[in-house]
Every structure is written in structure tokens, then in C-alpha cells.
Amino acid sequence: MKITKSETKEMVLTLTVNIVNGDYIDKVSKILRDYKKSVAIPGFRKGKTPMGIIEKKYKKPVLVDEVYKIVQESLYKFISDEKIKTLGSPIQIDEDKIDWDNQVDFQIKYQIGLAPNFDLAISKKDKIDFYLIEVDSNMIKKYTDDIAKRYGKMTNVEKSINGDLVYCKINQLDEKGGFLKNGISNDATVSMDHIDAKVKKQFIGVKNGDNLKIDILNAFTNHTDLAAMLKISKNEIGNLKFKMFNFQVTNISRLEPAKLDKELFDKVYASSNIKDIKAFKNKVKTDAEKQFMFESDRMFKNDVVNYLLKKVNLSLPDEFLKKWLIQTSKQPITMDLLNSEYNMYAKGLQWQLIENKILEEFKIQVKEEEVSEYAKKMIISQMQQYGQSKMEDSKLNEIAKNILDNEKEKKKMYDQLYDEKTLAIYKKEFNLKEKTISYDDFIKLASKKNK
After folding, report:
1. Tens-digit pLDDT profile for residues 260-277
2. Which residues pair with 109 in a beta bridge?
3. What span, in angstroms and rounded, lies between the C-alpha atoms of 310 and 450?
4. H or E element: which one contains 30?
5. For position 127, what pLDDT does the model report?
6. How far apart are CA 9 and CA 14, in angstroms?
7. Is residue 19 a contact partner of residue 1, using CB atoms and an 8 Å limit?
8. Cα distances (angstroms) measured from residue 398 to each of 237, 367, 377, 404, 405
9. Can you tell me the distance from the alpha carbon of 189 to that of 276, in angstroms, rounded to the nearest whole number?
């Protein structure tokens, strides 16, 4: 058995595997002898079938199977020994030229796609903008108000204002304005934040016992919420013959925000010992900045991807990869579909090659003990969010182990740690130009970049 290689196209290598009779004959002969002993063919006693009949019936499939076993094993060993970096998997060519009935020596050819060789050469000459989202006074006020509402309480009131919850008895009306016989009837809550602005005015200033006649399809544009309110399916919404409903007010509830005092500070930030509103707002600002940093990091990472894709500009064996994708696709795929989606696939493959190069070049690794510590920190963080006290180490280790026993969760944590480490490398190696930006402008910029 001998393998030769030749580069017939750019980034495509042809490997020719030469198999001679001596490479396979002993194995094929043994298998046929075993068949002769075990198979039962009509007209012959078991084990007494002439070898000529056995060969006629079984030799060709056995020969094909054994030759390809040798070819596959030899092919991948050759690729490994020669340290050939490939894309996709080998594709056999000229398969129809093999005469399995008459040949004793075989020449089996494969094409392999070659991965490109490239250098990253990241340095401080590589400049990328890093956007810091400004947390201004209006944003701090909004977040502070949201916290006060979250820890507030509901109280019943006599007359509704904007933002209240209005509890109603809802009945479907007929064409004369009376209750429809066997019509839809249900008790539900109307949230003013989820209804049409014009209809909302009708619910402001109402009292218990007031009746409102509402065209529900005009008032409630979200059919999922409307179906839940009427206790019917979404399909039934579109088929309603009578769309006018009577809403009789049965109760009005108002959210009273919590006071910004020590009691609230301790509930929200139990471990921070916040004593006054100024310190509370500073903590709100710090938390918002941390949260926004995730958004800044996400945009930065996307910018790094696009920058390196453009800078490195990797070539791929496109024709080979398209052929390979068609052959290996689980579902039939047309050339039109392949061509429409190939650019996205190629971009993903290019980034995968670049990212692997980054991991290799900067020796980025994630050890199992790091994943275990990461899981524990995540558990502690979640406990603190819910104001729970510190957990014993034995219990913490047990919960972390249970999480990591789930392979899907374990992989997710490995990926997150790799992500953190590569982000740290990007921030260290690239020349970051920090730019302060408002949240609204950041959203606009992100939307523009994603187009």
C-alpha cells in the first residue's frame, strides 16, 4: 500500500492510495473461509458449500469492505503523519473507474481541502473603538424608580389614574348592545400599559361599578394577551362575529412605590450597608455601569471579529467545500440554496480558524478546576441576588457538582470562560480607543452595525 499526493487545484490536494493484492488477500480469504463454514445455502449442507459459490456470492462485497477499511485507516494516518491541516473531510473522486469484478490492484483517489496558513500579527497598530455607555442622572432616576416600584405594594383605590390595574367583569355584547346569549364572559385585569392610547382614556377616572363598551380588537392589539383575557384561543380571536364587549369595573389597584429608606436599601443591597439616598444612587449607578459593560464588551468582540476577518482575509477552497457540504448534508440541498448560504458558512469557518489560532498563539486554556470555581461563583452570585445568606462549602460543592454533571451546562461554562479569556487578550493586545456614548446612541450604533 502506497499513498502519493499532488496539489491539483489551489488549496486542494489529491491523495492517491495504491492498494495491491497482497494488502488485502489474506484477510478477504479468511473471511470467505469463515463464511464457508457458517452460511447455509439451499442444496448444500452447512460447511459443504463449494468455495466457488461462496466467492461468487460474497467475494465482491467483502473485497470492497476490506479495501476501504485499509484505505480509510491509511488515509487518515497519512494526513496525521504529514501534519496536513484539512477542512471538511476527504471526498473520493473517479469512483466509477474502479472495476471490482476484475481488478486485483486498486488506485483510489481522494481530494482534501487545505486549511490556509496565516499569521495574526496583532499589535498596538490595530486600533478598535471601545464604547463606554454613560449612566446619566435621568437613567439613575429611572432605575431608582423601577426599584421602588419593584419593592412597592398594591393598594385598592376608588378612582383610576394612568398606570392603575382595573379589574373587570367582561361580557360579550350582541348587535343591540345587550349581553350576548352564550357569549364570552370572564373576569380579567386591564393593564393600561398594554392598551390602545385612545381606549386608555376611557379607563382613566373610572370607579367600581362603572361600565365601558369597548371594541376589543381596536383596544387590544396583542392577540396573545387578549386571548388570555377572554379565556379563548388566538384562532377564535380572528373569528369573532361580535367584537363589542362590556367591561364592568369591579376593583382598582394602584402600585405604591416603596419609600427610599434604610429598609429598602437593606432589601436591595443587603451586604452593602447603604445608609442614605446618595449612597443608594451611587450603587445603582455602579450596577448599571457593570451591566452596560457587558453590552460594551459584546460590541467590542463583534468589532474584533469583523476587524480580523477583514485584516487576515483568509482564502478557502470554496469549490471543494461546496461539494463537501452537498455530500454530507443530512437533507437534500440545491446549488441555489448552497450559493445563497455559503458566504455565511464561509465567514463562520474563517472566524473559527482565526479563533483557533488565537487560542493556540496565546496559549488560552480552561482547566476543570477553573470551571468548578466558576460554577461556585455563579451560585453565590445568584444567592446574593435573592438576599440569601452564605452557604456551607460542602453544600456549595455539592450544588456545583450537580450543575457540572450536566454536560450541556458544563460546556456552556467552558465556553463562557474561554470567552472571558479571549476578551482579556483582545483588550490587552489591541489599541483600544475609548469613546463615551449615551445609551440611546449606543443602541442606534449597534442597530447600524448589525445591518
Report:
1. 999 999 988 877 889 999
2. 16, 93
3. 16
4. helix 21-38
5. 97
6. 9
7. yes
8. 50, 19, 13, 10, 11
9. 37
The tens digit of pLDDT for each residue in 111-134 reads 999 999 999 999 999 999 999 999
Strands 127-133 and 431-437: parallel
170, 230 contact by CB (below 8 A): yes
Which range (17-21, 33-37, 162-166, 220-224) has the least confidence?
A: 220-224
Strand 127-133 with 86-93, pairing: unpaired
Number of folded domains in the chain? Answer: 3
Q: Is residue 169 part of a domain?
A: yes
CATH (domain of 241): 3.10.50.30
For 120, list phi and psi in degrees, rounded to 5.
Answer: -85, -50
The total of other beta-carbon atoms located within 10 Å of residue 380's CB is 14
β-pairing, 153-156 with 12-19? unpaired
**Predicted local distance difference test score (pLDDT) of residue 389:** 63
- Three cell numbers at 414? 467552558
SS3 content of the chain, % helix, strand, coil (to 5): 55, 20, 30
The reply to whether 88 and 233 lie within a common domain is no
In Å, what is the CA distance from 350 to each residue of 8, 318, 429?
Answer: 23, 12, 21
* Residues constituting the chain: 451
Pair 297, 396 in one domain: yes
For 269, the grid coordinates are 443591597
Residue 320 lies in a domain: no
The terminus-to-terminus CA distance of the chain in angstroms comes to 54
**Dihedral class, residue 209 (left if φ above 0, else alpha if ψ from -120 to 50, else beta):** left
Residues 221 and 280 in one domain: no
Q: How far is CA 240 from CA 82, 147, 328, 350, in A?
A: 72, 41, 49, 53
For 255, phi then psi, to 5°, come to: -80, 120
Amino acid making up residue 152 = G
What is the percent of the chain where pLDDT is above 90?
Answer: 77
Residue 320 burial by Cβ neighbours in a 10 Å radius (0-12, 13-18, 19+)? buried
**Single-letter amino acid, residue 210:** D
Q: What is the pTM of this model?
A: 0.78
Residues whose CB is less than 8 angstroms from the CB of residue 78 and which lie 6 or more positions away in sequence, other chains included? 3, 15
Of the candidates 91, 114, 137, which is a domain's last residue? 114
Q: Among the three residues 219, 237, 256, which one is the final residue of a domain in this structure?
A: 256
Decide if 331 is inside a domain: no
Q: How far is CA 358 from the centre of its chain?
A: 22
Task: Residue 46: give the domain boundaries.
Answer: 2-114
Distant-in-sequence, close-in-space partners of 178: CB < 8 Å, separation ≥ 6:
none
